[in-house]
Amino acid sequence: MESELRTMSIPEPPFEGACLCGAVRVRVTASPLLTVACHCRDCQKFSASAFSLTTMFPSDSFSYDGELVLGGLRSVERAHYFCKSCLNFIYSQLKGAPERVNLRTSILDQAASFEPFLEVMTEAKMPWVDVPAVRSYSRFPETPEELQSLMRDYSKR
Ligand SMILES: [Zn+2]
Ligand SMILES: [Zn+2]
What we know:
Layout: H1 2-5, E1 15-18, E2 25-28, E3 34-38, H2 41-47, E4 52-58, E5 62-65, E6 68-71, E7 78-83, E8 89-94, E9 100-104, E10 118-120, E11 135-136, H3 144-155
Parallel strand pairs: 3-10, 10-11
Antiparallel strand pairs: 1-2, 2-5, 3-4, 4-9, 6-7, 7-8, 8-9
Bound molecules: zinc ion (2 copies).
One zinc ion binds near residues 38, 40, 43 and 52.
């Protein structure tokens, strides 16, 4: 089985990373909760690419040095934080889920190790994109319970 041959081995915390210019440094002391590729149109624009890569961590395990500014649409529901100097996208946070940060995977030094387990919004996926995610949603998981169940499956991978 292909799924058994693919070993998604993730290094042990702590994890470190930095923005493009290095003015913002991040540190995470916990293992990731979930790794996600999002194909939505917003993420395509945010990432200047075909999809975004997110690694979710518990908020209390995440810290950073440097100055961040709010970017994106500055909606009440979700905040998108960028390096003030190079404007690299660092992380986002949902008002309804303050216990989690959605770190942009590319910020992490070992970004390549955080292979996406879940892909969402495949209905907006560019047709030539192929993400090797184990779980796939045409839109988003619909309930908090569904998300919890995905995190459980991810932690058992
Ligand atoms: Zn920067
Ligand atoms: Zn998205």
